Each structure stands twice: as structure tokens, then as C-alpha cells.
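tool_log.txt
---
The assistant was asked to compare two proteins side by side. It first ran the structure predictor on the initial sequence, then on the second. Raw inputs and outputs are pasted verbatim so the downstream comparison step can read them without reformatting.
(1)
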Amino acid sequence: MTASARSLGAGVLHPGTAATRFSLNRHRPPEDLAPFVDFCWVVRWDLRGEPAHEQAILPHPNVNLAFEAAGPAVYGIDRRVFTRKISGAGAVLGIRFRPGGFRPFYSAGKISTLNDLVVPAGDIFGPTADRACTAVLAAASSDEAMIAAGAGLLRGAGPRPDPVIDQVAAIVDRITADPELRRVASLADVFGLPERRLQRLFAEYVGVSPKWVMRRARLHEAALCADAGGNVDWAALATDLGYADQAHLTRDFTATLGVPPSRYAAEGR
């Protein structure tokens, strides 16, 4: 895998091909928005005179706010593979919220109500969302200017600090970093929370269950191994990722990505 493909990160499927079709740059959020925002991202492409490109993404447990030509939109956590088609030339600014970080901006209920949905940002932020999008796209020649324009929309919403965001974000980080955590009950013990309380926190703040986050982290790792090239020892990988056996990994991977891991790896070569 090339350096440009690796820089796309987990979740961008078949990054070797993707890196030839668009660029993706990540930026730290403005300091005052860091309690809520994981990072800002800018995608640029120029496919004029070339075929359109359809990119598949295996989403993370994060809500995203995107400013694009079609208008600003809030993307809830997609529990399936998300596919986006790009053509011509363009740029998009995205703001990826920390797990739980969108809760102060969303007064309509639990974050889980956004799952698998794309909601016009105006429905949540009001008419200022469209004005912010116009400003973002007018500044498309500079990542920094785009981010500054998008950040203004979040500041205008007046989010209040919420210590629960740090709590749930830390739990998600622990799941991602520790493949030995394979049971929700064990996770609850680590953080000293009743299991039902943990489930409620995730529904309200994250949007998906702790078990879903565990499963998705394993699938991200499996896809990264497949994309790295070379011969993958799927049986050993299944054990390392906490699956019962290779067949268990294959079933999980196929159910989510639509193809077995060995076929996915071959398609990327």
C-alpha cells in the first residue's frame, strides 16, 4: 500500500484505488471546538474527462457534518457500508464529531435516532447552515478558510461542555485500542458502570451499542490487513481479533462488506 493510500485511514475501502481518485486531508479542530470535534476533513477531486468514481466507506461510530455542493447535511452513523459517487471536480468539508460530541448540538433526542440517516443541516442548525455552506464553498481554495467558515456554524449553536462526552469517547477509544475487550460486561467492569447504564449512554450519546463499536473496530482492522497486500493468515487474524474462528470472521466480514475477506483482498490488487 502506498503512503497516500495509508493516509486515507481505516474505513476507506480499497484505499489503493481511492488514492488515485481523490485526496483526503485531516486537520485538528479549532481549540474551542475540540471538546466536541474529533477532526475536520477536506476531500478534493478532479475527475474532469475521466469516469466517475464510486467510493465505499465502512463508517466509524461518529456523526459527521458535511458542507458540499448539494447542501450542508448531518450524517448519522451508517451501520452499513456507505457508498458515495463523485464526478467532475469538487471539494467537501467535513466535521467529524467525537463519539458523543454531537449530543450538545442535537435537541431532538437520542443520537441513535440519526442512525442510517442523512439530515439537512438546516433542520438542526436552522437557516444559518445554508449560509455557512455558501461561505465554506466560496473558500474552497484553502482548507483552513473552509474550516474557519464551518466552525462558525458550530460556535453559533452555543454548545455547552458536557463531561459525559469525555466519558463515552474514552470508552470508545478503549474499545478500539484493546482487542482483548470482547464482551460488553467486561467493558462495563473496566469503567465501573452497570451494563444497562452503559447501553443507555451509548444510545443517547454515541448512537450505536458498545457491541456494535467492538464489531466495527474488528472489521476495520480486518479490512486494513486485507488492503495491506501480501498473504493474510485469516485464521491467525481471526484469533487476534477475538473471533471464535476463521469462519466467524468470514461470516461477519461478508455480512457487512458483501464479500468474503479473501475476495475483498483480491479485488484490491
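(2)
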Amino acid sequence: MDPLTDIIALLRPKTLLLGNLAATGEWGIRSPYQTDPTFYLVTEGECWFQAENADAVRLCAGDYLLAAQPCSACFVSHIGAKLVLSDAEFKERNTIDNEVRVGSRTEGPTTRILGGLIICDPANADLLFGLLPRFTHIRAAEDVGERLAGLMRIIVDETHAARPARDMVLSRLIEVMLIETLRRDGAQRASQPQGLLGGLADPQLAKALTHIHSNVGRAWTIAELAKTAGMSRSRFARRFVDVVGAAPVEYLLSWRMALAKDALLHSQKPLSQIAADVGYQSPSAFSTAFSGKVGCAPTQYAARSRGETMPGETRAGMQSNLRMRSAQSTG
């Protein structure tokens, strides 16, 4: 199995279009704070993108930007431009022909921006945070930029059409969009590898990662994985930690738990089968490992994620536990 394909499948991405922005003259807007990844395509004109604790980025027609982590973004005609549309006003702003319009409508060229929201499955949404940098800017001149622009046009068309299986088509289009972004980002970071994309950019580590994903239930040892990578055990272990950011055994455990969370929420498999699928000989051994990694027992995780309460647990307590677990996963 391809590790990148595995992860995108677990994310189960869907999209909601935030809408179109048309701006002329001197202008500036702050988009509402989003906890989910957001993507933007400048379809006409140019502007600057600004976010807290990040350098300003100049965007030109055809440029694509993906904000993979929660943020409130500002778009301005030029650095220092006054925000003429606040966060609250943005939410309440009336649109004309499906566009939010700002600035002087008669002065200067028009800039148009298309924005969308990526909704990932909550069980493993944090996987995307670990894959991508905070912001990914892809210029129109890049080969992938042209493909992304084409995908966005199809996404817009599919969103506004009432065709059969629209939701499935949109999900697949968003999967392709994410894969294109991840492929490009992995190539950009090949000289300074970091995280899973860095590991996949390393031919030797990529072999070991592919073996882990193709047989996650196997009790892999460092020696076995080092052999698949064609490296000595000690060199492989050091290289894996330096590049991927976790020891091989830790990565295997994290991937097992990601698969287990997905199965608990989206399958009807008994606990014994889920345990066996991810490499545990008994449900009790699996429950111990799951509790240590996730912070609660598998049955509690499934019940809480579905909004159910466990015996002896109040709904307020359940919500508090969910918030704590969410903070821990993104902190």
C-alpha cells in the first residue's frame, strides 16, 4: 500500500465552498476563523495574504494557497491596507451574484478569490496537520498549479450542479487536490526532510514505510525494517527518527491507533477483529495500548465520538473529556 493513499483515505475529506470574493481599489478583509483546513485560489488580479505569526505572501492570478492549520486569514490589496471588512461583517455580508464585494467598485482592477473549506473525519483530522506545513503556496507557473486550477474549476462546477453522486465526486476531487499538494510539498522538502513526507522522499525509508503500511498487523522489529531499507539497524533507527520525527515502533503504534479509531467509528467489526487487524493477539492487549495512546478505552472512544455517554458518565463530563482529548491531539 502507498502510505500517502492510506492517510488520505482515513481523512475522508469533504469540501464546502466558502464563496467568492471580488475586490477593487484599496481594500482589506479578515476571513472568519476556521478550525478546518482552508484553500484559496486567486482567479483574477493579485493581493497579499497575511496571517498571525507568518510572513505576508503575495498572491497572483492562478496562485493557490492551502492553510492546513486553524487560522483567521487576512487578504489585502497592499501591505498596510486598512481592513474594511471585519470578521463579524464578513459573516453577515450580503453577497451579489454569489460574490462578497469589497472596496471601491469603480476604481482599479478587480481581484477575485475563490475559497473553500476541507472537512476531515474527526477521528484522524490531526494527521493532516502533521503532514503539511501551516501554509502551502503554489504559484500558477508551477506545473501542479495548473492542475490545481483545473481541479478547482471542476469542484466549483460540481458544487453548483445537482448531479447524482455529487458528494462522492467532490470527496474524490478533494482527495486528488490534497495528494497533488502533498506530492509537491514532499518534493520541495526532499533536501530538508521532515515528517512522513520527508520519509517518503527518502528512497530507503520509503521502502520501510511501505512495508509498515502494507502489513500493519505484523510485529515488525527494527532489524526487519532496517533490512527492507538496506541499512544497518543502528543507522536505520537514527535516520528514521531524524527524518520522520518518531522512532519506527512509535510510528507503527500511531498508525495502528489511527486505523483502529477509523474502524471503531466506521465499521461494525467486533473489538476482537479490530484488535487482530492492527496486530494485537487479544482485545485486552489492544485496549491497553489504545488507552495509553488515545487516553480512553476503545469502547469509550467510540461512544463519546458518537455523542453517547457511558454508564456513570454525565454528558457534561463526556464533553469535557472530548475537549481535553482534542486539545492534546492538536497541542
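---
observation on (2): The two ends are 30 Å apart (CA to CA). Residues 295 and 325 are 7 Å apart (CA to CA).
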